[in-house]
Specification:
This protein is mainly beta and 211 residues long. It has one domain: Jelly Rolls (Sandwich). The chain has one helix and 13 strands. Strands 1, 3, 4, 6, 9, 10, 11 and 13 form an eight-stranded antiparallel beta sheet that branches. A five-stranded antiparallel beta sheet has the order 2-5-12-7-8, with no helix packed on it.
């Protein structure tokens, strides 16, 4: 191959969007770092912006759902390893919903919320599974990027912040009803209130086998 052609291919690979297919380790990018392609906001979509390679949530209640390439057949995950880099501003509250589904308004009724909150008045801190397992100690600091991971296999869900396990929860058999439970579905990011500003970048997921 001509030397110029090789250099061109290398440059194309270097600057290719992050959310095209799976990499060699099986990670699938969910955010291209430039646009909200593949994501759909319900209430107040104007509150979601992309700034300096990150999704920024700011303003009143709104949720940004990952729908993938085909909104009519939204993306769905059951067993997975989710990872994102997150930064909270002081007094911010947000969250990552798992096994959820798009709804036009209100707090998502399907799936679990993994809390993102290091200093807001609500004492339930980052890494908690809201309503289920509460962590009261902030595992990260405002104004600093941290890595949050969520691993779901079967009835078990583990949350981690910067590699440290915050919650390791297994749903007990036969005790949960309704829609707030593990099943399958997509992800959603949360804008909680006007005083909250939270940023998300390098959002990716790896599909896993069931335990």
């Amino acid at each position: 191959m001509h030397k110029h052609a090789i250099c061109t291919l290398l440059l194309v690979g270097l600057f290719a969007p992050a959310c095209r297919g799976a990499d060699d380790a099986g990670w699938i990018g969910l955010f291209d770092g430039k646009t909200l392609k593949g994501w759909k906001a319900n209430e107040k979509p104007e509150q979601w912006k992309v700034v300096d390679g990150a999704i920024v949530a700011n303003g009143q209640r709104s949720h940004l759902f990952y729908v993938g390439d085909d909104e009519k057949n939204p993306a769905s995950f059951d067993n997975f390893h989710f990872q994102a880099e997150i930064m909270t501003k002081p007094g911010s509250n947000s969250g990552v919903y798992i096994h959820t589904a798009f709804q036009a308004e209100g707090w998502p009724a399907v799936g679990y919320e993994c809390q993102v909150n290091n200093s807001q008045a609500d004492p339930v801190r980052t890494g908690s599974i809201y309503y289920v397992v509460k962590n009261y100690v902030p595992p990260a600091k405002d104004n600093e990027w941290f890595t949050m991971e969520i691993v779901v296999q079967g009835k078990n869900v583990v949350t981690k912040v910067d590699g440290k396990v915050i919650v390791d929860f297994t749903e007990p058999d036969g005790t949960l009803s309704g829609t707030r439970k593990l099943s399958k579905g997509t992800f959603a990011l949360q804008a909680h209130d006007p005083g909250s500003t939270t940023m998300y970048r390098n959002i990716k997921v790896k599909k896993l086998a069931a335990k």
